[in-house]
Amino acid sequence: MTVYFLCLVLFCIGLYCIVRKRNLIKIIIGIAIMEYSVNLFFILIGYKIGGRAPIHSSDQTILNMVDPLPQALVLTAIVIGLAVTALIAAIAIRVYEKYGTFDITKIRKLKG
Amino acid sequence: MTRILLPLFVVIPLGAAFLNSLIGKRIKGFSDVLSAIATCALACISIYSVFIFKDTGLIVYKVGGWIPPMGIAMVMDGLTVFMLVTVNLVAFLISIYSISYMEKYTEKWIFYCLFLLMVAGMNGVIISGDLFNLYVFLEIAAIASYALVAFGTEHEELEAAFKYAVMGTVASSFILLGIAFLYSVTSTLNMADMSLEIAKGGSPRIIMLVSVFFLMGFGLKSALVPFHAWLPDAHPSAPAPISAMLSGVLIKSLGIYAIARVFFNVLGTSPQVLSALMILGVLSLIIGGCLALGQWDFKRLLAYSSISQIGYVMLGIGLGTPLGIMGGLFHLFNHSIFKSLLFLNSGAVEYATGTRDLQKMGGLREKMPVTSSTSLIGSMSIAGIPPFNGFWSKLIIIAACVQAHHFAYAVWAVLISLLTLAYFMKVQRYAFFGELKERLSHIKECPFFMKFSMISLAVLCLAGGLLLLPGVFDSFLGAASDAVLAGKDYANVVFVAIR
Amino acid sequence: MKEQQKGMTIIVKTITRLTVGLILLFGIYIVANGHISPGGGFAGGVIIALSFIHIMLAFGKEDAFKKMNQGVASFFESIGAIIFITLANLGIAGGYFFLNFLSKGEPFKLFSSGLIPLYNIAISFKVGAGLFIIVVILMLFKITKEDEKK
Fold this sequence. Notes:
The complex is a heterotrimer of chains A (112), B (499) and C (150).
Chain A: H1 2-20, H2 24-46, H3 68-99
Helix pairs in contact in A: 1-2, 2-3
Chain B: H1 5-24, H2 30-56, E1 59-62, E2 73-76, H3 78-101, H4 108-127, H5 131-149, H6 155-186, H7 191-199, H8 204-222, H9 231-237, H10 240-267, H11 271-293, H12 298-319, H13 322-353, H14 364-367, H15 369-383, H16 389-403, H17 407-432, H18 448-463, H19 470-485, H20 489-498
Antiparallel strand pairs in B: 1-2
Chain C: H1 2-5, H2 10-32, H3 41-59, H4 61-67, H5 70-94, H6 116-149
């Protein structure tokens, strides 16, 4: 139970970082923290104590293995996270080129 | 062999997108033709699937021959068919429109590549029978749309894209968290199987928590009011065809469709959830409408009006009665038609005059007769003037509110409808009627392809009301609202179809 | 200062020259064995991309572009995706999208499990080229920024 709770704390740290920080790069870091906390939570759901990796190999039988499905899903989620982070980083760099600052309070051409 | 149609909805746009990036940048004009053909094929297949659905009923496609719930499933039911027709029809007309409009940008093939990826993502969201695949396709569509919003790479575009991307990612994280919780409760990801597991009872608190996560995640994607901040920036900043795509279909297939599917068919509705949906709907209705009234930027006004109209859809679906859901879905279809039309009009005006500020326009009716008359049709349609499609759907939603004894909501819906009329009168008054400004005297009507899509959409606006005719109604709109109303019965129907 | 512009110190360059081939080979190994051991197209593709990025970091972007430039990378990216979709579509001939219609062979042999190695190869093209392009684009931004300062 504690580990799940810690995941939630990590998630909240990421959310806090996105909401409170004014630097674009810090916001991106916040997004990364949030994504990884969700991934970690997903992995922990499939974990059981004493379980081992669900990899089938020729010379041994596996009796007590962890749930492989969340691991496959988290791999996909990580790839998606990579794509999003790369795209946002590229946009942030372009924003810096245009505005000359990473401070979100100074990037205000749009209103309303 | 009809089931082969299902994967085509994802394969055609994906294949076309990558062919575009391979060949399109070397041969000029190739990407125009390819994406027009691909989206035309998709539109034809989606209309054909209406007839197939009428004959065979629900179809489950087992990807890779693996039997669900072990394998991945694609499910085609009434709601899916309805959404597929909406998305692909609009996508086809917008792709025709972009042939002329996107001339002013360099690297057109990148645009088409991202556009087709977005269509693939939306089709995937709609056709997937699997909650995790829904998430993956949702992310594909969302990432493509972040990039498309930033397509102009000017100050406003980049700022809007950053905001949109951050908000979108937060929404996706919430959705993924919700999926993780659901998986922990049900140990399955297939939506039908999940629905059966949830129906067994047990851990209602976690289901409640998941409902909240999904409401936040999908609510952010569909820009319901507390979560709407990104939409008025992101939608106007994109190129006009993409604004039409984002406002017309993206927020619906990623937001409303997912809400309808997840809440009605998987989690099961409770009075609390329904009232939450209705309150969010009415809030978006009121706040979006009021904010739209004060805008002077043509596209920004349309974006706020999108929030308001999404409120109508959400209100209709949130009522949970057969009439309400039917009205909501009908308004979804109509909104995707007339909002795309209006955004295309705004694009045509921008193409000709180079400005989006309503105060700098005036008297365009003389110079741009097609744009002006189609926008008049679109405006009357969105405001709910009788012969047009918007009237019928709003009438049904208001009638459903009265029928369900939510009189306050009905009054708000009527009032905001009047407000909609007011701000579209403003658009017509300042942009198309009145005196022709001096500096606009040399402008020309837009090219043929742009006229073609605008006229087609205007005809659809006029013909939209025909969907309520008895013979047509049952196979299209009726089937869609039946699929939502089936609720938890969805699982049983899917499992019968698997066997 | 001139030395700095064209990459890192001689130590890094020498080590890179020695190891980069091994890294590439290891990536190919991971891809080829993806269906019988942990790894596969994505992990292998990342390692392959890293070998090119390694050259870019150590020697500067010009040397890396001699080995693999953006046009080639983007070509490989599209080709990878198209191969993947084509393979998936071939399954329709056998009845289902994504059907693994080739003979599965004997487990734990290199030539086994039907189409999956081919899928892995397609993914590795896509991922390797895609990741390389991402890094190149992020680096190009940085370089233009420095030019402006001068």
